[in-house]
Specification:
heterodimer, A: about 350 residues, alpha/beta, Rossmann fold, 2 domains, 4-stranded antiparallel sheet, 12 strands, B: about 375 residues, 11 helices, about 30% helix, about 20% strand
Chain lengths: ~350, ~375
């Protein structure tokens, strides 16, 4: 990673220095059926204190791109074809394993989707929490790490933290486990927090609690937060910026207010149209026709064109892969040849506001 | 096989008669339905406790309507759905289908009833036999009920069913693994439709599907309802979907219905604190709504159904709870507002209404305002 440090100057066009800057990330998996193009030319930045929502359906590459950045993709069958992931100027993709391990769980922390499977069932919650603290801080005594662990559990709203510290994961409910996961993630005051579907496995009333905990955790640590989700509502609640992914590519990127009020990619529009609103009255839903493509044999040109309402069979969509282009507002880009045609589109979701 | 006479309702159907007004139009009526699962422990498998999964539910589904049943995981909504079909035997209570009390019906007697009631399961990956072709899956009910005289008639019917749910007849030779989640759910719907049922029980039919596919299946269900005059019992935890599809909505908490009414009554003017908290907890729809909706964040988790709280089951998380809530169980009845609610202190609130300043008349100490983060507001 020598030399990598200097390259961050190239990206200084963004006012706050990005904590993480991903460029042209491309990840493939070799399978029996062929090569799966899971992530292709993905680029984005995230600054301190900011929340970036990555939206996409299953198979859109939203989780894989993050796992690749963290060195959590088994290679083989996975392969990082190209790209870089500059964390504070250093490329995580080319970092020696030992160094990456020190960063991971320390400065860069993760919250996974399923709190039922991401805690070790045979270790007490407190032991797992202090393991996270001691692994990244040499010479912290057991007593000291216990004190910090209890304080962290209290911070994320686990009642009777002192007693809960000595319980096993099975004694925790789903919401409590997710709180414990968040406590573990923020244990070492991370600069970057990656939350992969943090509320998907939880009930609505518990989800509301976790959203509040996530907000509190970010206020506490001021970490840059990447929120990977399929839930547009969660993005509306928490994100500052949004990246929309489809079939392994970024199709739209921009400020959360702009994306929701003036989406410029037909896929983003399709997602919003297919959601039934809770407060908005609506006669029929407008589904996106067809299904997501196989990542082994992507459609030529724009991967979305077979399902696109805007394409209308135009040849250019079939032959030419669209690049991300400026779409009106500042820092708003969309990968559609005809995004200008969506200029007058008003999202029904915003109409409700 | 057995020619079952339209069994006259047994004696136990007589004693209970709530809501007699609309019962004529009811295709399904459930009275004081209870399902307790015993917890057995030890060598002798002695019963050491019971899970109160469904704890006294009154419900009816009227002809041609969609009744939405919402609740969080563990509230008993799926158990209720399965008990109604007698896939699970009820502990007590009455189930009346088209005027016949089927509560004590045996397997054989149930067979003709199953022509009238069918179910679509949540997980389209687990509910289709991977070793059967689509033709056999969809054709099996026809075979069991002897509804097609020979193979070619059955095949024609399967082809017709597949077309009805938006698949092509050529798909009949394939196996479930060749289909995506949305297509599998269509196969599940085709199977349920094979017997021309009157009532479909839909147990989380779109929860396992991707967002863009969900709308396809919801639209399919709506068009089938119009085409065949079906009634639906739509069980789901997704409040937006339930609002979209339902005519009436029942809200379930810990084995009981806490509030029931028309869609607008429940969503616009809920009177039960749990319904109010549930609706307010749904994430906002656009960032422009940040800070404009009041959020009631409930403390704690749902208590265990093994040992539910005395009196009102919701009282342990309720900000309105008084002594009476622990002593007297509030019945589900009309409390001076336009629809029944099981709360001693029922009072309408508009949890979905957007306000300019979110600090509305808040009766709850646990009410938290969903404030926008400062950085975002500035931009």
């Amino acid at each position: 990673m020598t030399g990598c440090a200097t390259r961050s100057t190239r990206l200084s066009e963004f006012v706050p220095e990005p904590v993480l800057s991903i460029r042209d990330l491309t990840v493939e998996f070799k399978t029996e059926d062929g090569v799966v193009h899971a992530v292709e030319n993905v680029s984005y930045d995230i600054a301190a204190g900011e929340t970036l929502g990555i939206v996409g359906e299953s198979g859109s590459g939203k989780s894989v791109s993050m796992l690749a950045v963290l060195g959590l993709i088994p290679q083989p069958p996975g392969r990082i074809v190209r790209g870089e992931a500059l964390y504070k100027g250093r490329d995580l993709l080319r970092m020696p394993k030992g160094e990456l391990r020190r960063i991971r769980g320390g400065e860069v922390a993760m919250v996974f989707q399923d709190p039922m499977t991401s805690l070790n069932p045979v270790l007490k919650v407190g032991e797992q929490l202090s393991e996270a603290i001691q692994a990244h801080n040499d010479g912290v005594s057991d007593k000291e790490s216990r004190k910090r662990g209890v304080a962290l559990l209290a911070l994320v709203g686990v009642p009777k933290a002192e007693q809960r510290y000595d319980q096993y994961p099975h004694e925790f409910s789903g919401g409590m486990r997710q709180r414990a996961m968040i406590a573990m993630a923020i244990a070492n005051s991370p600069s970057l927090l990656i939350a992969d579907e943090p509320t998907t496995a939880l009930d609505v009333t518990i989800q509301a609690q976790i959203i509040e905990v996530m907000k509190a955790a970010q206020r506490e640590t001021h970490a840059a937060t990447i929120l990977i989700t399929h839930d547009l509502g969660l993005v509306a609640e928490l994100a500052d910026h949004v990246v929309v992914m489809y079939a392994g590519r970024v199709v739209e990127r921009g400020d959360v207010f702009t994306i929701f009020s003036n989406p410029r990619h037909p896929y983003t529009v399709g997602l919003m149209e297919s959601l039934p609103g809770l407060a908005v009255e609506q006669v029929t839903l407008q589904p996106i026709p067809g299904q997501p493509p196989s990542l082994i044999s992507l459609p030529p040109g724009c991967a979305f064109h077979p399902r696109c309402a805007l394409s209308n069979g135009r040849a250019r969509c079939r032959t030419e892969t669209p690049d991300l282009r400026e779409a009106g507002a500042a820092e708003h880009v969309a990968a559609c040849h005809f995004s200008e045609e969506l200029e007058g589109y008003k999202s029904k979701l915003v109409g409700a506001a | 096989m057995s020619e079952v006479s339209t069994a006259p309702s047994a004696a136990d159907g007589e004693h209970s008669a709530p809501a007699p007004s609309a019962s004529d139009g009811a295709i399904l009526r459930v009275e004081n339905l209870v399902k307790h699962f015993p917890i057995r422990k030890g060598l002798l498998k002695r019963t050491v406790g019971v899970v109160h999964a469904v704890d006294g539910v009154d419900l009816e589904v009227r002809r041609g309507e969609t009744l939405g049943l919402v609740g969080e995981s563990g509230c008993g909504k799926s158990t209720l759905a399965r008990t109604v079909l007698k896939l699970i035997e009820p502990t007590s209570g009455t189930i009346v289908v088209n005027g016949r009390d089927i509560t004590r019906f045996k397997r054989k007697q149930m067979r003709p009833i199953r022509r009238e009631l069918q179910i679509v399961f949540q997980d389209p990956y687990a509910s289709l036999n991977p070793r059967m072709t689509v033709r056999n899956i969809v054709g099996e009910p026809l075979k069991i009920h002897g509804l097609a005289s020979d193979r070619s008639e059955r095949n024609n019917r399967v082809a017709e069913l597949l077309r009805t749910v938006g698949l092509s007849p050529e798909h009949a030779n394939r196996f479930p693994h060749e289909f995506s989640g949305g297509q599998r759910q269509r196969i599940g719907v085709a199977r349920a439709l094979a017997l021309n049922p009157q009532l479909l029980i839909l147990d989380e039919p779109v929860s396992a599907l991707d967002v863009s596919i969900r709308a396809q299946v919801v639209n399919l269900l709506e068009s089938l309802q119009g085409e065949f005059g079906l009634s639906y019992l739509f069980v789901a935890h997704d409040l937006s979907i339930v609002r979209h599809v339902s005519d009436r909505v029942a809200v379930m908490y810990l084995g009981k219905i806490v509030e029931i009414g028309t869609r607008d009554q429940v969503y616009e003017r809920p009177t039960h604190p749990y319904t109010q908290a549930l609706l307010s907890a749904v994430p906002i729809e656009s960032p422009q709504q940040r800070g404009k909706r009041q959020r009631i964040v409930l403390e704690g988790d749902v208590p265990s159904p093994v040992d539910p709280p005395s009196g009102c089951h919701f009282r342990t998380r309720c900000w309105k709870a008084q002594e009476i809530c622990a002593e007297v169980e509030p019945p589900l009845e009309n409390r001076g507002f336009d629809h029944p609610s099981a709360c001693h202190f029922a009072e309408p609130l508009e949890p979905l209404k957007l306000t300019e300043q979110a600090a509305l008349a808040a009766s709850a100490p646990t009410v938290e305002v969903d404030a926008p983060s400062a950085e975002v507001d500035a931009s």
